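User: Structure please.
Assistant: Input sequence and predicted structure:
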Amino acid sequence: MPTEPGGAVLELDPGLASGTGAHATTAMCLEWLDGCPLCALRVLDYGCGSAILALAALKLGARLACACDILLLAGLLDAQAEEVAHAHRPCFDIEIAARRDGWIALAGHRRAE
């Protein structure tokens, strides 16, 4: 919960994945973002993982936040795979790259325009 009245709250249910904001480096970045005047700025979260920094930037007033990582979609539970694949199918051909212990990784190849 935010320590100041009117602070931004961002809830993320990561399951067992990382990217929650509890890790020291993510926490430092979140604190830095909270101190920046983001109003109307565009933000790039490169190597985004869960995209928590891009989402936080939007909550803190950024006009636009782009989150970019490798095309491999990982950190997904088996039960989430179809929904995530469906969301990406308009632009990507999606296939299962790996499965392990209830987790799944999807790979995508951009469709020719």
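Residues 73-110 form one domain.
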